[in-house]
Design a protein that fits this description.
Length: 205
């Protein structure tokens, strides 16, 4: 199987991209942030469904997640237990949304949410996407990742999607909008192949 994980660097020249690992609070020394695989889909669904029920994100079905599994990043331990996820939702060749950012309640405040978002940024850059936006009720989270507040009216594609969902009966909770332009000089944790796992797997502790 071809999987990726993150090799974590702190970039002195790009502090906004540095991972702020809190080793004393790290969930497990074997937790890695990696591209999702089909076997993760059920656990991603559980996380998303939990927060969709609280109006914090849009619901997803297992089919939707499985068919778009290449767009997801997860933080998971060596046994495959998923603690956090995020997704890249593409709207055009240059624009995408960071969506479905979810961390298991038992693992909040340990940096995993930040790390899966940085993973999505990496994925976006690999696909030549320049601009990301995100919608959240939580200001501080995206601000801490160098996103700038903006208005959702910048993204008519998203408004159109909201309109469609709303007409189909999905409740849309108003959220604040954040934007990040990745730019050509942007850098983030490097994606590397998992193998050989012993030398390349990113350890949080
Ligand atoms: C929001 C969420 C993804 C954050 O994940 P996390 O792993 O706990 O966040 P991190 O540890 O990476 O924290 C990063 C920063 O965001 C801040 N932050 C995290 N959650 C926050 C919250 N609920 N309210 C305000 N600030 C928050 C942290 O204080 C931290 O800032 P600091 O470094 O200055 O202290 C997580 O709380 C979650 O799953 N929430 C429910 C789902 C949700 O709201 N998703 C976002 C919508 S896309």
């Amino acid at each position: 199987m071809f999987r990726y994980t993150f090799l974590v660097h702190n970039f002195p020249s790009a502090p906004q991209a540095a991972l702020r690992l809190r080793s004393a609070e790290a969930p497990s020394s074997r937790t890695t942030v990696r591209r999702a695989v089909r076997a993760d889909a059920g656990q991603i669904l559980e996380l998303v469904t939990l927060y969709a029920g609280q109006g914090l994100m849009l619901p997803r079905t297992l089919d939707q997640i499985t068919s778009r599994i290449d767009n997801y990043v997860v933080a998971a331990d060596a046994s495959g237990r998923v603690f956090a996820c995020a997704a890249l939702e593409e709207y055009s060749p240059s624009l995408a949304e960071v969506s479905s950012v979810a961390v298991s309640p038992s693992h909040h405040g340990k940096g995993l949410g930040s790390q899966v978002v940085l993973g999505i940024e990496r994925l976006a850059r690999a696909r030549d996407i320049d601009e990301l936006f995100a919608l959240s009720l939580t200001d501080k989270f995206f601000l801490s990742l160098s996103y700038k507040p903006t208005t959702i009216s910048r993204y008519p594609e998203k408004l159109a999607r909201y309109d469609t969902l709303s007409k189909s009966g999905v409740e849309i909770v108003p959220k604040r909008c954040f934007q990040k332009v990745l730019g050509k000089s942007w850098s983030a944790p490097q994606l590397v192949e998992l193998e050989p796992a012993s030398t390349r797997q990113m350890k949080l502790a």
